[in-house]
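Q: What changes when flavin mononucleotide is included in the input?
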Amino acid sequence: MAILEAINPTLTAGWHQPDLRDMNRDTGWRLKDYEARGGYQALKKVISDKLSQDQVIAEVKTSVLRGRGGAGFPTGLKWSFMPKGAPEKYIVCNTDEGEPGTFKDRDIMRLDPHSVIEGMIIAGYAVGATRGYNYIHGEVYELYQRFEEALDEARAAGYLGKNVLGAGFDFDLFAHQGYGAYICGEETALLESIEGKKGQPRYKPPFPANVGLYGKPTTINNTESLASIPYILRSGGQSFLDLGKPNNGGTKLFSVSGHVNKPGNFEVPMGTPFATLLEMAGGVRAGRKLKAVIPGGSSAPVLPADIIMDCTLDYDSIAKAGSMLGSGAVIVMDETVCMVQALERLSWFYYEESCGQCTPCREGTGWLYKVIHRIEHGLGRPEDIDLLNDVAGNIMGRTICALGDAAALPVRSFVKHFRSEFEYHIEHKRCLVPRDVQKAGSTFHTRLMAGATC
Amino acid sequence: MLSEATLRRIDREVSKYPDDQKQSAVMAALVFAQEEKGWLANETISYVASYLELSEMAVFEVASFYNMYNLAPVGKYKLTVCTNLPCALSGGVHAADYLKSKLGIGFNETTPDGKFTLKEGECMGACGDAPVMLVNNHHMRCFMTPQEIDQLLAECK
Amino acid sequence: MLEIEIDGKPLQVEEGKMLIEAAHAAGIYIPHFCYHKKLSIAANCRMCLVEIEKAPKPMPACATPVAKGMKVFTHSALAVKAQKDVMEFLLMNHPLDCPICDQGGECQLQDLAVGYGSSAARFQEEKRVVSNKNLGALVATDMTRCINCTRCVRFTQEISGLMELGQAFRGDRAEIMSFVEKTVDSELSGNIIDLCPVGALTSKTFRFSARTWEMARRKSVSPHDGLGSNLIVQTQHDHVKRVLPLENEQLNECWLSDKERFSYEGLNSTERLTRPMVKQGGKWQEVDWNVALDYAAHALRDVAKNHGAAEIGMLVSPHATLEEMTLAAKLTHGIGSKNIDFRLRQADFSADGKRKGTPWLGMKVAELNTLDRVLVVGSFLRKDHPLLAQRLRQAAKKGAQISLVHSAQDNLLIKLFAQATVAPSQLPTQLAAVVKAVAALKGIAADPALAKVGAGGTASAGSAANQETAQKIAASLVAGSNAAILLGNFAQQHPQAALLNALAQQLAGLLGARFGFLGEAANSVGGYVAGAIPVADGMNAAAMLAAPRKLYLLLGTEPEFDCADGARALAALQQASSVIALSSYKSAAALDYADVLLPVSPFSETSGTFINTEGRVQSFYAVVKPQGETRPAWKVLRVLGNILELDGFNYESSEQVRDELLGGKTDFVSGLDNAIDGIAKEIPTAAAGIERIADVPIHFADALVRRASSLQATADASVPSARINAATLAKLGVAAGDMVKVGAGGTATLLARLDDGVPDNCVRVAAAHASTVGLGPMFANLTVERA
Ligand SMILES: Cc1cc2nc3c(=O)[nH]c(=O)nc-3n(C[C@H](O)[C@H](O)[C@H](O)COP(=O)(O)O)c2cc1C
Ligand code: SF4
Ligand code: FES
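A: The predicted holo structure follows.
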């Protein structure tokens, strides 16, 4: 899937529309194409203007680029935490996109891998790292291979390696592939994974900026965050900030999935009304009624239709509504969805993906799933709803990493906003929404030309 | 135990990491070993461990943690269908059901002729293209309607 | 120092400490499972959650560093709720089978559940079941009880040095296991039993034999290697049931080697000698003590009178107590003999009379961790000294450069800086090369005695690679600020041990470093202190066997296994007119060569003292009553002295013997000094022929461990083979897997095994085992041919 529409595109400007039949077709991702649309100009500018590390960081701070990986932490501020002068430092890109609903980094990697490389070189320059790794989700192995090709191109062109563009600094970049573990999206699990271990998150502190990859200072950013860097350095931080709204700089890619007519990625300015995005995505499928939206990837609390329709797409507005902008993955559910079944699937996911190291998550995710599974299958007990809330609450804030919260938040929000559906299930031992309606509502969606195989 | 070509691929991975960090190449080494052998038998894991100078248990921890590694033999074609919520909203479960009935097997089963193994997958980061499916871990297929599935199965010789 | 407050109590805490350490130091208990002071922090169990002022959520005390002004509440409502909730998660899948669990009574989960668990289980789903794993002869598993704290995994990674255990799979499918049912072969494996906070890992030898609260706990000291680990011996009805470490940060920390932990099985062996016996007319008879002692006294008198007391030789186990050694020496001298020795595996006695004092470690055990450069010479370090090796492993992790000059390349699980592996005859040459290289680096004129060492000289048996290693080691040592040279058992048993000693001394002198001996046995230092060595023209252990005596007194030793040349020892004993053995065991061999067997107490049944390798005096009491008619050896020797009407045998207690010897109570003995003078530095030239490399496998090393049946079932106790490298195999025309006849005349038939850690022209054959006794000396040339 590629960008279907955009408002004020910066990141996706100039991208080729992919051949949906062939994922591996050359779709303007090569170095020559990237350079033709202004690629590597930012890096050259940093070099020719002799910007200091602090100046680069200041520019990124001005842009108020907030981390696109989920937590929304200001990127410039994160870079400024890196200790000065340490001899060995790393910059790591997080392309382990596995949060259900999120599929934006895949398009960046597929259509514009050099933007990530350029962003990483600039980041490396800014924090004084001489080596970088891009950790790529195992399931998009073809993009891992493509990225390796892009790296070869960049290396051959002198953007990578010793003495980058003759500017007197060294930077090399490598790809590392994941192999089927959602948890490796968590930054410290990702570092463990690069070190050749299980992806079990580390307790923080110490933070990666002090003790990161191989114990050395490390900055980790999301793919989209890094791909946004060239624009910021090329056009100025202020220009990026101005695209969005205060405290929410720039445009952002939103992945819209589920019950819409045109699922896909959309680049819109921060602060765009949710209704606009829904419209761009073709509205709710088959003219049905919107029921609920998960606005920031599956780990974000679900919001009922009436609440989300009043939101704008930025960190602050969504937070005020009781959820999170997260990675910008918008999962749209219409009236045919049974919320118990939807939650059952999500809680299975967290149960399956818990790394197993800390007690509340290892044990709690299984407990949650088992209870929800029972309710969905007509074996619920009246006390189960409070039990769910309680168990979820006992996981939250007690774990090593945020997967514990990610597993608990959906449960709590589904129960909060759709309690009556759970009660109905327990009482009547079946769904409020008839099975056949559910099934029909979630069948194949053949909006696209027949035979498209991406 | 592993072919020369596979070992050279592993060596290339080793070279990506600092000199004293051979362990970093273990995931890639297991991927290549699995490509060559189809699955990761204990002997293969031991071999990778000795090649990278790691304890066998350190390698087994990795092989058993990441779920794209096959710790048991699989069919010639391993088909992994994403049934996570976003995909499920757009036919993910239907696609899986279609495959199950076409192949006559359930998840984690292999057809009697040893050709197909069916797996349930978690989010592949391609939810907009649902239903999504992985063929032998490395090739992603999207918009897998029944016709597409039929065509895929026909392509799998 | 920082100021913090825990539960309202103001505390001064060192910066960098974790909250749990600060709390525990102040006597405030914070519940925990995964935290262990000797292991890395995992923070995975979440049991130690506490409230910290201004923190929005409870924090794990084990992983939260103290900060100035921090106010911590370990028992606030928030903290207790968090701890209770974690407990609920831990117990939900737990089998709650305490009544049948071996950990009962010492289970941290059980203890905490009483305080934190709620009685009504809200988890009503099916519980998880985890299959058990076969980890070998020592550690039993009940994996359904495992709480995944990963202490055992971290132990294997961090302390024992090889990750034999791991946590495989993920989520609640995570399981602790070894790789495909491999046994855990670490010589430290038993510690995971102590570390496991629940009943998932328990002792196979102890299993189901007693409940903890029914047993008495008594302190003791390990009778094996020179470390002198402190023990808790648990007993019931005068039976030793189990041995646990008694924490002593200066010695064993909180660990024990498997030998120390499981050798107690030998105390209860069916081979225990429990009644005095005498052989008359070739027939053994159990007799009363007075009969046996009279018999022994008569034999002693008889030989002294008819053949001269010099025909009497006393061989003392280096594992005997200080008191036993003292009285053995007294007795020997009392009857007019000077032939006594405890250095049974030693081959070179040329340093006798040239020593400045008692050879010892040269430093405190605890100082090993602080060294930054170490050269270990001639040591099967990991198996000979498991816990000293562990200390050096930790030192290496902190950056110490550790090098080895030896004749084997066993994996020490220590990151070695350099190692040179040479034939035994070349060990002095290799060490001399290091001495020379250090002198060169220091710009000090080379010792003329070493002129021939190194490239070009006739004594340059070392290959170019070994020369290079010598340079590398020298450079490392010179760059250090706290270096030590350590001579292992192999170096002490070496036929040129005195030369090695002199070279180490010279090297240490050049470097301003220390040097020392890794004490082989519990009383390797004590034997010198007790005077259990020949004086003046007395015969040492080797001489007594080389020129066979008429009468031998054996104290706690089985010379065929314990001496440098088992075959010769056996022959000497067999030809003697009388052998009086004070022993805890009746072995077939002893029944053959001895004519009086006096049942004496093993360490558990007597009071006594061991002086460890750092000179530390450690006395202990009997933990159980002597079995049958067994008597403490010091008492037997005293009575024998009395019967023989010798002076000065009127001791009332072992303490009296000790205090008289040491001049009152003391923690460390004086007179420790490794220096020797007047050793001619004749560096050997290359030897011809096939040399034997003899290790003493950890579980063959003494009479007690040889009878510990579970240890005998471990990989460390496998039957000796002939280990040879590929080049030498080819040269000998033998293939790995062949049976080979080893020794002149094919004295032992062994399986040939490929071992590329063995140097050229060498064959490694373990000593101290029945199958290899016939091979004779530990250091010698051997023949090898296909059987
Ligand atoms: C369970 C879990 C999964 C995560 N998955 C991803 C991911 O797939 N991609 C990503 O960029 N960040 C992910 N994160 C967030 C990262 O830990 C980290 O915050 C992010 O990569 C930082 O980059 P940013 O500051 O540029 O957003 C995840 C976090 C958690 C707790
Ligand atoms: S919260 Fe879950 S995923 Fe995160 S460290 Fe703990 S067990 Fe692992
Ligand atoms: S003791 Fe702190 S988390 Fe286990």
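Observations recorded in class: Chain B has a mean pLDDT of 97.
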